């Protein structure tokens, strides 16, 4: 059973369909539509912050000229993938999985499912559970407490719950935040608003990237869709890795280079060090990409501005800052991040005992110690999400094939008796991760318990490495169930 019909769930379904055509499976989706993130978010300008040659599936070329793509383009691509691979019939909409109970006697997962369209409950069973719902809550984003919020006379909007009828034409807008969502919203809204102010507590590294990749488009023209896509994908994987490694190895030089680029993009005399000079090193948090420098262009035009300060209180007219300055606003947008939630908030039990995720250790970044027949898809934090998810899906299918070939029904990762130091599963400094780090699984200090964030290492481990690892305990079901 696959939980989630977003980019990861559709990808998992395609790998199962092509690599294990004899397997039966369903994709359970709580919402009324597929696409996950790319259907959920509707705020102005919503787009990827990774290029689609690496964010796209390895098996399906990205044919659009725009490499940094808008949500409608990505959504069309994901849904095309589902249709082309016969996955639409596998998706069960309005099926929200509330909990999953493993029974060793039956060697099955028993899923507690709510029908979100009728409110009724049902139970489904599966031999394996593949959690592909990402790592954040779909029903609510993160909004910190703001003093005086109730005093503000205008609308206060979180991007995750964007109203379709919000009219910001000719309005003054304050966008609170400095991450990927904020730097997307500001130039998109500045095209129609009277003025948009990005209010940030701490600066973020922001880099202009071309919306269209001229080399990738040329490769596609010269080599055709399939070969051109593969070549562009290899180029961009190498490029992402080189940039990340350079920033890790030479953070001071990387900071200077980013600053120099920012200076060229911004108006003369702009206080770059106040608004675009973070206190942390490049790639300690994710760099924000702005296609064709649209954020900088809006600042140069005077339709957008950046303020770095702390909020004292909301007022009737806008936001009062700790410096004493008041930002006038007709609309306030709280682009303050996600709420991280492991496994879609599933309540797991194994033979009646609740699974406490912080007590588990991730095996190869895709399974949990002590939890049988469960896999999950979490992508990279320092590169394109789908790069890792594709490798995880491949390895998952190889594992199932190995079990079938050897007559195994159950696979359980085990830490053994030797103590091992652990650290957070997502070792990343971003605020949305740090707020939830104590609710997530852990990772170890060695393979296969180390969660890799390097694509080439994962190719060796997940694509080329063996699946019959000593840390995996295989067994047969006490009673064979045919389903």
From TrEMBL:
Sorted keywords for this record are:
FAD, Flavoprotein, Monooxygenase, Oxidoreductase
Cofactor(s) this protein cannot do without: FAD
The record's comment on protein family reads: Belongs to the FAD-binding monooxygenase family.
Name of the molecule in the record: NAD(P)/FAD-dependent oxidoreductase
């Amino acid at each position: 059973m696959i939980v989630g019909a977003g980019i990861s769930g559709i990808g998992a379904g395609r790998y199962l369909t092509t690599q294990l055509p004899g397997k039966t499976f369903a994709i359970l989706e709580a919402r009324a539509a597929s696409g996950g993130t790319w259907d959920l978010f509707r705020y102005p300008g919503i787009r990827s912050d990774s290029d689609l040659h690496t964010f796209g599936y390895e098996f399906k070329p990205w044919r659009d000229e725009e490499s940094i793509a808008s949500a409608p383009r990505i959504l069309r691509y994901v849904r095309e993938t589902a249709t082309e691979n016969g996955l639409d019939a596998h998706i069960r909409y309005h099926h929200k999985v509330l909990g999953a109970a493993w029974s060793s006697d039956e060697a099955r997962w028993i899923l507690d499912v709510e029908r979100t369209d009728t409110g009724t409950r049902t139970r489904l069973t599966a031999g394996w559970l593949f959690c592909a719902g990402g790592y954040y809550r779909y029903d609510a984003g993160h909004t910190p407490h703001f003093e005086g919020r109730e005093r503000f006379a205008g609308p206060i909007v979180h991007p995750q719950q964007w109203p379709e009828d919000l009219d910001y034409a000719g309005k003054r807008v304050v966008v609170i935040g400095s991450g990927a969502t904020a730097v997307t919203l500001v130039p998109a809204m500045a095209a129609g608003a009277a003025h948009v102010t990005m209010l940030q507590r701490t600066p973020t590294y922001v880099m202009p990237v071309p919306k269209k990749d001229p080399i990738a488009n040329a490769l596609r023209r010269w080599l055709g869709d399939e070969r051109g896509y593969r070549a562009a994908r290899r180029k961009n994987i190498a490029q992402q890795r080189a940039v990340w490694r350079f920033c890790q190895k030479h953070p001071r030089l990387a900071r200077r280079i980013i600053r120099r680029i920012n200076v060229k993009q911004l108006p003369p005399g702009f206080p770059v060090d106040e608004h675009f000079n973070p206190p942390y090193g490049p790639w300690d948090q994710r760099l924000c990409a702005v296609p064709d420098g649209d954020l900088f262009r809006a600042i140069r035009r005077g339709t957008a501005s950046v303020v770095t300060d702390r909020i004292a209180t909301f007022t009737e007219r806008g936001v009062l800052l700790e410096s004493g300055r008041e930002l006038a606003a007709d609309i306030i947008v709280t682009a303050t991040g996600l709420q991280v939630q492991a496994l879609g908030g599933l309540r797991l039990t194994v033979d009646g005992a609740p699974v406490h995720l912080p007590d588990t250790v991730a095996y190869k970044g895709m399974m949990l110690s002590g939890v049988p027949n469960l896999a999950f898809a979490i992508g990279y934090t320092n590169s394109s999400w789908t790069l890792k998810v594709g490798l995880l899906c491949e390895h998952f299918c190889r594992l199932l094939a190995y079990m079938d070939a050897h007559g195994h029904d159950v696979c359980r990762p085990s830490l053994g008796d030797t103590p091992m130091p652990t650290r957070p599963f997502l070792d990343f400094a971003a605020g949305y991760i740090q707020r939830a780090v104590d609710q997530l699984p852990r990772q170890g200090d060695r393979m296969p318990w180390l969660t890799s964030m390097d694509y080439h290492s994962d190719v060796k481990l997940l694509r080329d490495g063996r699946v019959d690892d000593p840390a995996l305990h295989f067994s047969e079901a006490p009673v064979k169930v045919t389903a």
